Amino acid sequence: MEDAPRGIRPGEELDAAKLSAYLDQQFGPGALTVSQFPGGHSNLTYLVRHGERELVLRRPPFGSKVKTAHDMGREFTVLTRLWPVYDRAPRPYAYEPTGEVLGAPFYLMERRRGVILRREVPAEVAGDLPRIRRICEHLVDALVDLHAVDYSAAGLADFGKPVGYIERQVTGWSKRYVDSQTDDIPSVNEAAAWLQSHIPPEGPPALIHNDFKFDNVIFDPSLERITGVLDWEMATVGDPLMDLGMSLSYWVEPGDQQSFYQLSFGPSARPGMMTRREYADRYLERSGRRADNLVFYYAFGLFKTAVVLQQIYYRWRKGITSDQRFAALIAGVRILSEQARAAINRGSI
User: Fold this and answer.
1) Structure confidence by residue, pLDDT tens digits, 107-123
2) Left, alpha or beta for 253 (phi > 0: left; psi -120 to 50: alpha)?
3) What residue spans in the chain does CATH classification 3.90.1200.10 cover?
4) Buried b (16+ CB within 10 A) or exposed e, 13-32
5) CB atoms within 10 A of CB 285
6) Whether 41 contacts 326, CB under 8 Å
7) pLDDT value at position 204?
8) How many CB atoms are located within 10 Å of the residue 82 CB?
C-alpha cells in the first residue's frame, strides 16, 4: 500500500543533465534516477534518487501561466518554517527560483514514506470498524494540530492577510471562475451569489493548509499515525473554518448523490468512516472553535474545488496541456456545484 512512483508521463520529463549538475552542486556527486508520483492535477511531484539520497521534487505543471497558483517559493518557505514545529511537515532542502535548470522554479524536500489512502482502505482493515474510525480521528486531529501552531512564533506572521480573508476568497474564486469559464453551469453562479450574500464573521486566524484531504496525508503502515502532510501550495494565514470547509468538501458519505461518488478523494464513504457532521463535530470539540453556519464553509469548499477543476479543464480545452486526464473535469465542475446547491437548499452539510 505504500505510495510508489511510476514512469514519467509523456511531456512531463525533466532535463536530467541539468538536474544532475544542480544536484551535484547542492549535495555532491551522485548518480541520478527520476520517476514520477502519479497523483495530483496541479503541481508535479517526482522522486529523485541522487546517489544514496532520496528526494521529492515539486515543480509547476508544464504550460501553466498562473504564477500565484504554483508558487514554489511560497511552498518552500512555509515548509522551511513549519517542519521544526509541526512534525507532519516534510523538511525542505533546496529551492531553485530562476527556472534556468528545469524551465520553472522547483524545490526539493525529504521523502516521507508510508501509506496514502485514496479510494479504498487496506483489505486487512476493511472489517475493523473501530480502527477505521480511528483513521478519521487521526485525520481530524492532524488538522486541529496544524491550526494550533503558533504561526507568529514560527516566523509566518507575514504569510497571509487574515483580515477580510473570507470575503477575498469568495470574491477571488468567483472571478477565477469567470476568467476560466467554458460552459454554462447555473449551479456555479448560484453558489457564488449565495456565498457572497452569506459571508460570516471571521474567527481567530491560524495557519491553514487549504487542501487537507486523505490523499494529501501519509499514514504509517499501521494506519495508527499520520507521518506526513503534503501539497502546501495553497497554505496561508486565514480563518481555520475555511480549511475545515475545504476538508469537508472532499468527504463523500452514504446518501450523497451517486454522481458525487465519482469524485471521491478518499475512502470516506466506506463502512465505519465518520460522517461529515461527525468530522466537523470532532474538529470543533478538539479545537474549541465555534461555527454557526457550517453550510457556508462546506459550500465554499465545494465551490472552490469546482473552480480549481474548471481552471485545469480550461488549460486542457485551450491546448495548454495535453494531459487527457483533464478532459473529463468539466463533469466534476457540475457535480461539485450541484452538491453545493443541494447543501445550501437543505441547510445542512
Assistant:
1) 999 999 999 998 899 99
2) beta
3) 129-346
4) ebeeeebbebbeeeeeeeeb
5) 11
6) yes
7) 96
8) 26
Nearest-angstrom CA–CA distance, 89 and 58: 15
Domain with CATH 3.30.200.20 in the chain: 16-110
| 247 half-sphere exposure, CB direction, 13 A CA radius | 27
User: Could you report the per-residue pLDDT of 167-210, keeping only the tens digit for each?
Assistant: 999 999 999 999 999 999 999 999 999 999 999 999 999 999 99
Region of residue 217 (phi > 0: left; psi between -120 and 50: alpha; otherwise: beta): beta
For residues 180 and 329, the answer to whether their CB atoms sit within 8 Å is no
Residue with C-alpha cell 473554518? 241
DSSP 139-202: HHHHHHHHHTS-TTTTT-TTS---TTHHHHHHHHHHHHHHHH--S--HHHHHHHHHHHT-PPPP
Cα(344)–Cα(105) distance, rounded to whole angstroms?
A: 40
Give whole-number Cα distances, 90 to 75, 77, 84, 114, 307, in Å.
11, 12, 9, 13, 28
Q: Which fold has domain 129-346?
A: Aminoglycoside 3'-phosphotransferase; Chain: A, domain 2 (3.90.1200)
Averaged pLDDT, 229-250: 96
- The pLDDT of 287-305, averaged and rounded, is 97
Q: Which three cell numbers stand for residue 269?
A: 464513504
Q: Homologous superfamily of 16-110 in CATH?
A: Phosphorylase Kinase; domain 1 (3.30.200.20)
CA pair distance 293, 242, nearest whole angstrom: 11
Q: 330, 177 in Cβ contact below 8 A?
A: no
Q: What three-state secondary structure class fits 132?
A: helix
